[in-house]
## 1
Amino acid sequence: MIGKKCGVRRAAKIGLMTSCAVGSLLFGAPAAFAQDSRALDRIVVTAERKENDLQRVPIAVTAISGDAVERADISNPLDLASRIPGFTFAPFNAGQAIFSLRGISSNDDGAGTENSVAVFLDDVYFGRVSNAAFDFFDVDRIEVLRGPQGTQFGRNAIGGAINITSRKPSFDGVEAKVNARIGNFNTQNYGAYVTGPLFDNLAAKVSFSSRNRDGFIRNVLTGNDLKDQNSTSFRGQLLWTPTPSTEVTFTGAAQDEDNADIGRIPLNTAGVRPFFDAAGGSIQDLRSTTPQEGFSERSSDLYSLKVQHEFPNGGELTSVTAYYKTYSDWEMDSAGVPQVNVVDDILDRTDAFTQEIRYAQDISDNFDILAGIFYLNEETDREEFFRFVNFFGDGIDDRSAVRPATDPDDAVGGYRQINETNSIAGFVHGNYDFWDRFSLSAGVRVTYDEKEIVSSGFASGEDPTVPGLPGFIINETFGNIVTGEGIADSADFTNVSPKASINFQATDDVLIYASYSRGFKSGGFGAAPPNADAAANIGIDPETANSYEIGLKGQFFDNTMRFNVAGFYLDYQDLQFQRFGPSLIADATAPDGFTVDPTSFGFFSTINAGDADVFGVEAELTWRPIEGLTLDANYAFLDTEAEINFRDFFTDDPGQDFIINQELNRAPRNKFAVSALYQHPVGDNLGELLWSVDFRYSESRRADFVDDNTIEDAFGLVDANLTWVSPNEQWQFSVWGKNLTDDRYFSHVYVIGPGQIGTLGEPRMYGGAITWSYN
């Protein structure tokens, strides 16, 4: 059958278990285990681009089922990250999402860069910061692959990959589901899908999701609520089987968001915090002092065509063709206090076309191979304007390509970058059972990227036709941001990335394994050049990571327990890092030889900052001690040390390198999650109850290499859920709570000239839910 190939059969032949992480059955479907057995069931994933048993793939991957996504209300990467070892997510704004896996992350949101962690939706690659974070709905499963990926994926990913698979249209009669979730802060979330056959060889599915919630932060300056949520998503699919050996899937999807300001808040440090306190702001009471209330609007459209054909010799050919466009427009206050009214205004538009073709074949009983090619064409047009506003309520009224100051006392600086990326790659990966209990997996990827960018800048004081102060952050007018003409640059990058693993099946239930993989992230161009000279010198080199991993994986007590532990080392080189903050000045009396320039508000600079060593341990456990009860735990330890050269961050070139050792950003040293799910019948034929509770903890983590005050404090979150399932499984009623201890924590922290600023995570949320199913 299409999509169910040699991997399961091949691995079963020798009883092979490879170095995948444990898939949490706690997060599985309510009926994920047999009622008369405690044995853990098989979980199917597509981490190797074919359906396979989770325990049979040589990749570190955690899988979460669609039912679990719905029950736990995992609606975005922030909800997901706290449940995955080694994974963090920092949402500066909806269009500025920072993913981090095993300490590898990217924070440049410019037109000429991409994420270190790749996101795939039904095999379609999303790679930019502005389009990689979207709502999870109509999900069959989510897989998080840790470590470099590339020899089996269309686009390379140096840190890892998030693989999201939606539910397929069904030929097995009409199926439908409707759910509603309500709660405090006027939470109203609704979702539905319907699927079924239209003809003997044509099935269809339509799905819908609406998520709405009032803001939970009160702006004491205006009385308005900030940090609300308003999003709507649609997906339509057609599944055509013209022959028993061919599947053709067409997908059309759209998402729209329209949210208020996110209410940035100063941290408990010097700088602007005294202004926040004096104006009546409070972290504990969720009160902000935002002087310039903004907004965030995002939309995306996706069209894809997936064709799978199985040949008589057992080979399978897959083609995935996709086009998508994304639009992000937002304007928000940056500092969170009326005395420092700094407005950041961004308009980001991306059009992308991708084509992937891959072929999988069993060469013999002990050898199979996957080979493919991938092409990407991506065009991004991005504008960003910074305004130092001197009067309260002095908003931006002109939404045209150029946002001039509305008051002559405002300082304005802005830039526009138009980038086109063309990438083509070939990859091949094979699995060979070469001797009894030994298996070898190996592959290689060859990538060629070509990027072309045009940068232009605007500074109000530099243009005699526009009144105002000298430019702010962008301090020189160059090119023409209206027409997009400016300073051009181009670069191309070639990379060869191998991957190999060897697995020894010590016993039928214990595997000892070792693997090596090389990750690659393409070079590009940094964002926000402050002047023409910087625009002509914004190129950054690729970054690479050599990953070494050893571990043990076992299934114990008659398959009622799974336990994985792995140790890894990453040699992370030429890491790309963007910093926004004050300039530095040489100071021989300071511990590191430099201090912050007190006259500098800040500027953007993206450089190849240095190298890092990453040591880590990840462990995952799933245990069913009694029938109906599933316990789950995971833990990640990260020890990171980077050698960062700060020479390019100085106001004036100091004439020498300034290298210090520092932890990587957004890499907590300790992170863990524990959870329990208990399912049991209610009386005689009265249905079932599902009780679930989980606790997730993350130690503190850095947000900036230079500023020791930009620390996101440790936090712990407690969620719980109680669900009644009707005897015929048609109805479900739930009560739920999230962050039940009402912990205050920052989901993102950054630095600007006056100090350190953060955005708060959700407070205590609670409510009820109802689900109706038909099949």
Note: Confidence is low (pLDDT under 50) at residues 3-36, 395-405.
## 2
Amino acid sequence: MLKISAIAETRQAALERAAEDAPYLRRLLARADERSFDEALADVQAIDPASGMDAVMQTLRRAKAAIHLALAGDDLSGQRGVMDVTDALTRFSCAALEAAMATALVSRGLTGAGLFAIALGKMGAFELNYSSDIDFCVFYDPAVFGGGETTPDQAAQYVTRDIVRLLSEFTADGYVFRTDLRLRPDPSSTPLAPSTRMAQGYYESVGQNWERMVWIKARPVAGDMDSAARFMEAMHPFVWRRHLDYWALNDIQAIKRMINSKSGQGGLSTVSPNVKLGPGGIREVEFFVQTQQLIQGGRLAELRDNTTLGAMDALVEAEMVGQDVAEQMKAAYCALRNVEHRIQMLHDEQAHTVPEDEAERGALARLCGYDDVAKFDADLEATRRFVQTEYASLFHTEAQDGDDDELGNLVFTGVDDDPGTVETLTELGFSNPSAAISIIRNWHRGNVPATRTTRGRELLTALLPGMLRAMGETGEPDEAFGWFTRFFDGLSAGVQTLSMLLAEPELLDDLVATLALAPRLASILARRPELLEVLVSGQVPLTPEIDADSDFETVLDEWRRYHREQSFLIGHGLLHGLLKATDAAAQWSRLADETIVEMARAAEAESVRRSGPAPGVWAVFAMGKLGGREMTAGSDLDLIVVYDAPDYEAQMWFTRFTQRLITALSAPTAEGELYEVDLRLRPSGGSGPVAVSLRAFEAYHNDDAWTWEHMALTRLRFVAGDDALGERAHGIARVAMAARAAQVDQTIAADIADMRVRLYAQKPGQGLWDLKMAEGGLVDIEFAAQKQMLLSPENEAICPDTLGAIEGIRASVPSEDEDWAALSECLVFLQSLQQVQRVAVGTDLVAGTLPHALKNRLCRAVGVPDFSQLEQRLSNMKQRAHDIVERKLQV
């Protein structure tokens, strides 16, 4: 164990010897007044606030130099113990703060009633280190503090800025203390000096356990002591809870785990440790004490000592810590604090790390009374190893995943970025760790709905290690974190979702992977986080039992909930390889068919209720991708509604029915939306009626339809309504297409070739990953197949799905089998990629922006080992398809 000894018998001799190793002490000897600590402190206490800012600043700085010199001499000669030094430094800081506040108030003509400062951290506990900054908060009581010529709030801010300037500004005489006001409530969004009303509201509503730890050491130090006492009394229930529930205890344990530094030989055996933050450091001793105070201090008033050593003794008295352990922890703490002081004597920096350079470490060792650097290194390691062992045994309940500690530091408390946490996130692959830390810190402050409750914040603390590890494992932690942020910010309440993620570690991993892979699904989850419950249940959603008497809006909402769950499960299964890309189209199309059937039934019921019984029969037909059962995530619905009725007036009824069907399928409700609906493939397109009579359907396709409309008609498929009407419409379509094929003045080939040229001009391809419109894409293959179908008078090759059509063509035109086999292979390849593409991003891909995990998923969808090979194969496939289609579309 470390044994810090005096380096000389007298104060002067110690300073002269130390000056050989410590540049800062050497400078002090050259310029500082040689006064005792008591003399210099008395000068500070005698400051006249009316003497002016400049005079006060000079007095404070010269007193600081004298005090540093005096205390260094007392410390190094053994005339003051380390805790006597910290006590003296703290008394000076309190006197300096009191003088600064009084000066600031007088300079602005204010009395100061209702304005006060609370010391926190080491300043509150009389434990300041040699070059410490000082943590304090300034508050004002709006019922007492008068702002003079300004509002109380403005006056409080002006005074606080003046205090900071008086203490922190560098002048020819140096500075007094670096000041830190960031332990005030929510420092990112509150003024320098909050009102007591605002502060109490914050701590009562969103105060966190780490802030309770901060306030264990709180102490009024300057200003209106009566107002300060009232505020401290109001803070008492927040700091000292009489009862802690399970989640509060769990949160404290999680904080402990997050503060842990990397364990293992490397962390403890380094010759250049951080004696404050590193494993076995000062923070661990403090946390050893404060955690137990936090848990038991609400019931046991004797534990409420705000000093580390006093609280350690109280824990012994309460039989919570053994006497031997406590004595050794106290000795280790004092030794580490001594080393910390001597590190800071070298350069007057707020540093805590033992120099790695052997010469500088030798200087530090000599200041600690060691002539042998190796012996110093060994004793320091032994001390830290003992502290780390006792600290690690503080809680026996470890994280659910035993690897959490291997992550390293994950500290999101306080106001500064913890260097170890920055390192941990960097190693996980985060490109901007500080940005992630800032966002998580805001979550902890209750700045999103999910963490506005205490339990929500505590659940977040428990989840963070596993969540961040999972993000690192995706290979795209920034992408995953960005989408998780949207997801988390969108939660209206977090306890249920966070509890579920904590109880189901595999679900957390699944969620993070989904967010990294698929921005589209991530966006859906952000809006509808309850979809996670569908994954947890492991059950296929049950089709809603829609009551015949249910009103139209209720039916729409119930079906949207069911559709949302089914759609999410399909997309999730496709994304994670649980559903083959080649099978996904059938699943999406089945869901769309099922939806059309139910929504058409609801639209009919509403039409009957409003307009009486249907005057005939109706049928809904799918076209396009739905007709070919080639739906992808987010596909719209190409539909035609055909009716057959003897009465001409029936048009009005079926028009209203179709409009209600469109509403049922596409209108957004409180439960979301289903599809976009496109009826432009009906006869006469956008200018015709939305519901087409069978007679009009027959006449149009026999007499007026363009070639492109018959191309679309190859995909006609009956979905809902009257079966007999469906058969009749299909028969009409087949007759019309056969008639076109049999025409003497054949124009099919020319029309299709011309149409493809027009499409190229109007919608040029967008590069390699444009799987649909670019040369050799899906539209090219569809054009070739549809041309061949329309040229077959007997309709033997007509099939609504393109792959089925090609198989029919291969059977009917065996001489071209090689070409059609190649197109079939290309079609499956492109459709498989498009399925993953659409569920992941919803639009055409830009390869440079693709998450790494999504690239891997695309490769798996088509059985290609890596992304570069995938892009090469895709390019070759499209080129080959384009060459074949070019030949087949020639007139």
Note: The CA atoms of residues 75 and 81 lie 7 Å apart.
## 3
Amino acid sequence: MRFIPDSPPGDRRPIARKPPQRAERLLSAHLGVGPRAESILGDLREEYDRRLGELPRWIAALGYWVAAISLLLRLPRRGSRRPGARQLESLLQDVRFGVRALRASPAFTATAVGTLAIGIGATIAVFSVANGIVFRPLSLPEPDRVAVIQTNTGGPGWYGSSQPEFMDFQEGLASFESLGIWFAAEVTLEDSIAARRTRVGIVSSEVLPLLGVPPVLGRLPTAEEDLPGAPRVAVIAHETWQREFAGESSVVGRSIGLAGQTWEIIGVMPAGFTFPEPGLAAWLPIRLDPANPVNRANHNFPVVGRLRPGVAYETAASELELHTSRIRDRYPENYAVRGYRTRLQSLHERTVGEARAGVLLLLGGAVLVMLVACVNVSNLSLARGDTRRTELAVRGALGAGRGRVTRQLLVESAIVATVGGLSGLALGWAGLEALIAIAPDDLPRAAELGIDGTALLASAALVVSSICLFGLGPAVSGAGESIRSALVSARSPGGRRRRLVRRVLVVSQLSLAGVIAIAAGTMVRTLANLYRVDPGFDADRTLVFRVSPSSARYTTPEEVVAFHRELVRRLKAIPGVVAVGGHSATPLGPSGGNLSLVLEEEPDVDISAAPDGFSQIVTEGYFEAMGIELRSGRLFSDTDQADTPPVAVINESLARVLWPGQDPIGRRFRMFGRGSPFIDVIGVVADVRHGGPDEPAEPRFYVPHAQAYRTAYFSPLGYSYAIRATADPAALAAPVRAVVSELDPLAPVSAVGTMQARVTASLAHRRFVTGLLQTFGIVALVLAAVGVYGVMSLAVSDRTRELGLRKALGARGAYLVRMVLRDTLVLAAIGGAIACLGGVTTERLMRGLLYEASATDPFALLGAGSVLAITALLAAAVPAVRAARVDPMEVLKTEN
């Protein structure tokens, strides 16, 4: 309320502000002209003025709208109005009548709304996951211009490039305005309280600028700061800034301890920046020397680039292919034997990775559940329509046209769909929170998941689709029927056409549920096959963890070896410990370095023709601690020290590669280049599937930690450990931390857990997909069972006279039960056959998730068919029993 500024003193007449004009016009059109309309509008204006003096204007306007809508729904129309007002009044009448009709059928309304809410909720939850991971672009400027170059120089898979190959890309690819390399590493973050392990991005000076995301504070590293010997500078993550420095704006110029060194903070990245992976604490310069590049065969660096404006993705890919051919011809000594291939992949595709197939499969399952729900509600609507045929025919006889009756039924469907959609949106929000809680830890872009505007539009689209899917059929079939035909059919409401429609809908439900059952069954079989795979080690009663001493305290290889030797000795002394072993690459984790090898009998081999194997550095006792079996020869002992002849243990795969069909014990090999000494093979152990149970074992060799700096280029400072226990390995976590702290209080212990938990985590993605598909399958089967029950119940009601006559003529109850169940099995068989065809179609989407399983497997199809048959028979059991209990005398009395 405001007052006239130039009014005489003491004159405080308020200026009445007008209420919301649209709401007032709607009410005026509805009420017409007359004292009644003026009274109602005047009362609303006074109430609006009163609220305006006490509350903010928007709250007063909201109250006016609520009151206006309430009056529009309750008050009858008066006076003459324009055509638009009459149409609005007619629609409001349909809404009021629809609400009353749905209240009169609470069982139908609750079932329909609940069914739709389940379908829409499941779809919205999974769509939000798919949208956040697969469909939504990365949070970068022009993300479609950012791509990754991947390399293959023999063997399976794609990986990074070497430094010389990256320099070739910079010189030879004109399609890119900038190219950079990176990798992620685990380092020790030091502070005043305690050191702990964290991950950082090691990036070239081009990487952060080409991504196009500026820092919120400070600046990014320059090219001069990315050279060897340059001052150590770091850009920290937003979370690190908040956690370690309390969000102080003066953080730029301060220092942070990482990897045993002090780094000057020059910038802070914005919240939500996650390249190349979530949870990084900082980004450090890679500081490679372009004048002295590392070996062309060491493919350690992923390459990322931004395309020039206007350059098509296909153009860049073609240029990359031509460039690769030129480099292959220029360096035949590196690529002549193994080859050299590259490919261009969008950064979005690389980020999503293997999660795409599982997420899209889940989205397909949720959509099928939604379709089953719509078909179920359509069946319920048809059944309800049969009971209202007389009512609708009478309305038609009293003057309601076919369009008006159709609109009335569509309005009722819209009310059900809207309420179901709102309920489904709430369920979808709760379901999304549950999905995030149970999702695998490595699910990409998990922090970006949420119900956004796109999900709300999808929810609205589902509501409209629901109206079309289950509302149009009953509306069209229920409108326009004559009163004579309605009264005649009242005694037998299920005509042949309606029975056929209902059966088709049930078959549709069963077939859709069958497709989900086939997909879920195939994934269950995949999981069972993976759990049966021998990983090459024994995960039972094994504790694993990592110890990372500071490079500032242990500056020589001898000091590093002495630290870990003493730690092994102390860990062995813990009660309940059977064996202890340190290692550089834990199974089901990073595989270690892949190195080219030279055999003693072939010393002059070119690097392009040299075999290779993954190196792993271990201590004495590693194989016993991990339960890796010795096939021949011996394992490492305390006699294998730095001053003794270098030795190695190889796995069976490397033995087949280096000396096929021969005994490898006593043979010798060395790493390619750098004057590495020849190493004696003293033992052969079983293959270990480092990449996971569905990944083949790589050729691998093991060298003792004491000799690593002489034979394997380096001696690692941070080391993983495995402890085999006599009982529960988790109980050893506290004693292990105490032993490490006693030996070196500044050495953090991280990644503590059981090996069995790692095995389970390696299958987390497939378990997540399988569990959700099973849930969708159960929901779809329950909805399909409801549909079968409804159709069979109506069929028994329609055939009551026939069943009574059959029983009067001598038919037994068991025969009538078999007759109903036989009809049900026919529907299930048709639905199962269609589901088999759908299962064959879905296998293509599931291919990347399967392991020794197929959706076309006869056992999978037979299992899904059996589930459908059992579900249908259980649903039809009650109607079948009711058919057997039909009383012939009651039927005859009714006929008379």
Note: The longest strand covers residues 176-190.
